[in-house]
Prior knowledge:
Radius of gyration: 14 Å
Oligomer: single chain
Amino acid sequence: MENNKVPVFTFSIIAIILGVILYKQFDFETLKFENPILAVIYLIVFVFSVYVLVKNSKKRSGK
Length: 63
């Protein structure tokens, strides 16, 4: 049980940081990212971290 808390904490910190970075890089006037290639990489990692958090949350509620 103790081992399971580390990935949740790590992925939640990653998701928060990448969410803020994506928000700051998005230009709402032109509706474009400042650096689109980097934004795609950030978005992929952000979606993966949220997926892991949701999957882990469902596993915990199933117990």
